[in-house]
Design goal:
two-stranded antiparallel sheet
């Protein structure tokens, strides 16, 4: 499934939940699928710019991103997990190009503090940077 299609499906699924607070609470269901084990939470994986500690780990698996995360705060863990779930299994090119529309489309932008939104932007920046490093450089002109 293409990343844009996956995002549209996630938005459709989440917006079936009419109450925005319940929609936000439902994000905890994504945590288990992308959970970074405690034994792998190294300081080098901490996302800068997050008030809560958020660990983010990306690795290439068969040409696709395997994205896992963890966070100290349950709410942040759910938000981070949704973002990781979105990009998990995508190609680096898709990951670099497709921006998350989830926050706006699901109404989370209106519910989250600027600090949390900045943390999510920092996570996105880390994911984009990792993806860019995975994309082979075009052959240099001779």
């Amino acid at each position: 499934m293409m990343l844009a299609d996956k995002q549209a499906e996630l938005i459709a699924d989440l917006t079936l939940i009419e109450n925005a607070q319940e929609r936000l609470a439902a994000l905890s269901s994504y945590v288990a699928g992308v959970q970074l084990p405690e034994t792998e939470r190294d300081d080098a994986l901490l996302v800068p710019g997050c008030v809560s500690r958020v660990w983010l780990h990306c690795e290439p698996v068969d040409g696709r991103a395997r994205v896992r995360c963890a966070a100290d705060s349950p709410m942040v863990a759910g938000l981070a997990a949704l973002l990781c779930h979105l990009y998990d299994g995508s190609t680096p090119s898709e990951m670099a190009a497709v921006e998350p529309e989830l926050w706006r489309a699901c109404g989370f932008e209106k519910m989250l503090s600027p600090t949390r939104l900045n943390g999510l932007a920092s996570m996105r920046s880390c994911l984009r940077d990792w993806a860019a490093r995975q994309i082979p450089l075009a052959a240099s002109p001779q």
